Amino acid sequence: MKNLWRDEEAKNFQSDLELRVYTSNLLGQNNELVLHGGGNTSVKTKVGGEELLFVKGSGWDLESIKAEGFAPVKLFALLEMAKLQKLNDSDMVAAQKAAMTDTSAPNPSVEAILHALIPYKFVDHTHADAVVTLSNAVSGEENIKKIYPNFLIVPYVMPGFILAHTVYEMTKEMDWSSIEGIILHNHGIFTFDDDAKRSYEKMINAVTKAEKFLKENAPIDLEHTHIHSDCDIIKIQKFFSAQKGYEVSIVINQTPLATFYAAQPNLREFASRGVLTPEHIIRTKRVPLIMEDTNLEEGVNAYKKAYLEYFHRHATNEISIEPSPNYMIIKNAAVISFGKNKKEAQMVSDIVTHTMLAVLRADKLGGYKSISEEDSFAMEYWELEQAKLKR
């Protein structure tokens, strides 16, 4: 992975927050680290004698974030929250907002408490493709321990307070100098340091280790001739516009990766094994529509029926979102993503593209295994994730 830090450029940034913006933008420029609002960063610094955590605000992208995109939160208040045994989402959001020193700033990231717990000035968190590919493989735990012997390894738990409290319990007797970073299974990676450059470079170096392992142990050869048929785009667009109740934009992917993926045997089972990282589910749903041997109407009706069955298996007092698919795979032809506009359709397509490559690589390591259906539902209907869609 390429290191984008430039000493001459970095000299233009003097304050802690300016350096935080600079390295956040560097992370955001690489879509193999974060995609469309993913990941978060923070810096701890004193303002008026008070220790604050400036953490990425909800709704901001790392690639374009500016100083005003960071929420200033009293560090002590966040550390006290981590000690609580329980804290529901609404109370967490309210408590974080109450601890902000600038009420005009955006809401703090849902990972603000975890950032506060890490006793270093700069904290970087990404959903690096290579790392998540490893942890979504059946052999993930074994391989991650081998590649990252000096990292804290955290089993998958729900992001937000539950994750922060889990890390608090795992580390309250730990010497933080004994670890180089944190791997969150099925989720991502944290690196940290008191120096902005070193924290950033630790991330690049750690992800490079995963990339090297995948290159050596899970190479993917896309140099094949694939069946490549035409798709009736106008028909598909009209049909899904009627299904969703608004004019749908679509992105069609017929790259070698997409056509190779769409040509896999047992496609329905192969391509329906869940998301790469939990937050993707609000964009893509858990599984795509697979079109093999039915017409479009039959396929979508079956998909919606299955989605509602999935919903009722796990729902308590939630209200089902619109149950039609957000992307489809046409056997031997294409991967097609839908959105309310071209930007949203492209976001879905980008996420699916990264997922396809990860699935193919994880299968080389013994099989791809996402989070459970129950965990998927919890993430899809998490009020803090649904709020992202509304924004």
Folded structure, characterized:
By secondary structure, the chain is α+β, with helices and mostly antiparallel strands. The protein folds into two domains: 7-217, Class II aldolase/adducin N-terminal domain (L-fuculose-1-phosphate Aldolase), CATH 3.40.225.10; 233-390, L-fuculose-1-phosphate Aldolase (3-Layer(aba) Sandwich). The chain contains 17 helices and eleven strands. It has helices at 7-10, 16-28, 75-83, 89-98, 112-117, 129-135, 140-147, 161-171, 196-217, 233-244, 256-262, 267-270, 281-284, 296-314, 342-364, 373-380, 383-390; strands spanning 40-47, 50-56, 70-74, 122-126, 151-154, 181-184, 188-193, 249-253, 289-291, 327-330, 334-339. The protein has a seven-stranded mixed sheet with strand order 3-2-1-4-7-6-5. Strand 9 (289-291), helix 14 (296-314) and strand 10 (327-330) form a beta-alpha-beta unit. The model has no long low-confidence stretch (mean pLDDT 94).
Question: Roughly what percent helix?
Answer: 40-55%
Q: How many H/I helices? A: 17
Mean pLDDT: 94
What kind of assembly state do the chains in view correspond to? Answer: single chain
Task: Look at the structure and name the CATH superfamily of the largest domain.
Answer: Class II aldolase/adducin N-terminal domain
Unreliably modeled segments: none
